[in-house]
Amino acid sequence: MGTPQRVLLAPWALLAVVALQLAGASHVIHWSLEAEAAPPPSVPASIVSPLLKTGYHFQPPRNWINDPNAPMYYKGWYHLFYQYNPKGAVWGNIVWAHSVSRDLINWIALEPAIYPSIPSDQFGCWSGSATLLPDGTPAITYTGISRSDINYQVQNVAFPKNASDPLLREWVKPAELNPIAVPEGGINATQFRDPTTAWYADGHWRMLVGGVRGGARGLAFVYRSRDFRRWRRARKPLHSAATGMWECPDFFPVSGAGLENGLDTSEAGPKYVLKNSLDLTRYDYYTVGSYDRRRDRYVPDDPAGDERRRRYDYGNFYASKTFYDPAKRRRVLLGWANESDSVPDDKAKGWAGIHAIPRKIWLDPSGKQLLQWPVEEVEKLRGKPVSVAGKVVKPGQHFEVTGLATYQADVEVSFEVSSLDRAEPFDAAYANDAQKLCGVKGADAKGGVGPFGLWVLASADLQEKTAVFFRVFKDGYGKPKVLMCTDPTKSSLSPDLYKPTFAGFVDTDISSGKITLRSLIDRSVVESFGAGGRTCILSRVYPSIAVGKDAHLYVFNNGEADIKVSHLTAWEMKKPLMNGA
Fold first, then answer.
1. Which UniProt keywords apply (predicted)?
2. Would you place residue 457 in the very low, low, confident or very high pLDDT band (cuts 50, 70, 90)?
3. Cα angle: 501, vertex 502, 506; to 5 degrees
C-alpha cells in the first residue's frame, strides 16, 4: 500500500460539514483513503479502475455494504442506517453505519449507530427497522446474533440517548428489555430475523419478523405489544407461502388506485403491500391485498396466484426497505445492489455494494401493482442536457446520442412503434420466466417488433455495450405482450464476470405503439424504469473500454418495424455533495 492520502473536500462539501457541526454533529467522519494499489495478477486492472466506482448512487468510500436499515425522516433530516463492514470489502463484522441527508441524495456520514455491545447482539447487529412512537421519539428494532456457533438470532430494541438531537448520534439498548423476541415454540433460530416498522391499532403495536416453517414455508410472524417494550408472538402468522425463508419483510398501507400520496404505516389503507426477500432466489417479491386488523391476517387480492409473480425490481436489487416520508407525503423505497464480479475483485477494489436511487412508490390505476419512480430530488443533479426528437430508426439501424458525457447520465426516451403487425408469437412456455426468454432472445437476436432501446456504457466500436430494450410479442389471442430486458452479456471484455440477462414483462397497453424508458447510468450500474415505472431493472456492469469519457450512448432497433424516437433527453449527472458514508 502507498502512503495514505487525505481526501480534499470541495468548498460545498466543507460548507455541508460546517452546517452539520453547527447542528451539533461533532462526530462527522472525515475519510482517509489509501492510495490506489496495483491489483493482484489475477484481477484485471480495469476492474479496480476508480472510474467504475459510482458517481451519484449511495456508496461508502470503501468496504462492504448491504441492506438499508431503518430509513426515517426526523426533525428535518433523512436518516439512513445500513449494514456495513468497517474492516473490509466482504461480508462480516457487521455494524449499522449511519448517514444523514436533507434531500435523500446528498449524504453526510456520522459514526456507526448500532454495533455489538450487549449479550443479545454480541456477535452481530443485523437488519431491522425504525418506528416513530406517539410522542415522536424513534425506536429501532433489529436482529442480534447472540451465539456465534449457529448464528442464533433474537430481536432487540434501541432508543436514542437524546431524542432532542436531530442527528440521533447515540443509541441505548435497555438491558432490562433485550432481547424483546426470541425463537421459542419451535422457531428455527437460524432463520428468524429482520423486524419490520411497527404499526399501531386497537391499543397494540404490531411488528413482523421473517422466518420459515418446515424448511420450505416462508412466513411473517406477528408480535404485539402495548408499550413497545414487552412483546408477545401471535398464535398465527400474518401470512405464509411455500416459497422458502422470508427475509427483510415489509408491510405497509397504500392509498387508493392511482393515488400517489403515501400513508404512514399505522394509517388504515384501502389496500396493503406485503413484501418479502427470498433467501432462496435473492429477489424481492410483493403482493397487493387486504388486511384484517382484528384477526391480524393478510390476504392477497389474488390468493391463487404465484407469490413470486411480482417483484420490485427484476434485476440486481435485494433486501429493500420502505419508509413513509411525512415531509412530502410519499412512501420511499430503498434497496441494495451487490456486485456481480468476484470476491477477489472486490478485495482488490476495496469496496462492494451500492444502494439504488431512492424511489417513490404508489399503487397504479389498476390497483394490481406498484409504480416506482426515482425521487424528484435526483433531478437536482442534472447538468448539461441533449435532446433528440422525431427521429426514425429503421430496422437494423442505430444512432449515437452525442454532445454529453454519458458514463454518468439520466436518459428519458419515448418510443413509438410504427406497427405491431410484425410482433412475434409468444411462447407460453416462458409465461412465468421473462429472464429465460430474454436469455434466448437477447438484444442481438433479430425480432419482429424489437428488440429496440438503448445501448449504454458502449465503446465506440461496440465491442462493449449494455442493452436496455423492449420486445413485443402477440399472445394466443392476438394481444400484445411486452418484454423489457437488460442484456449485459457484451458489457465487458474483462474475463470471469457474472453477466446475467435480467427481464420482466411490462403490464401496459401498447396498442397505440407508444412506450417510455428511463435509464440512470452511473459508471458500473444501469437502473432502468419501463413504461412509467411499471417494470424496473437494475444491473451491475464493469466495462473495460467504455469507461469515463470513452463511454457512448446509442439508440438501436433490431426489429423489422420502424421505431420512432418521439422525444429523448439525456442529462449529464453531477456528483452529489458527499456520496455514501
1. Glycoprotein, Glycosidase, Hydrolase, Signal
2. very high
3. 135
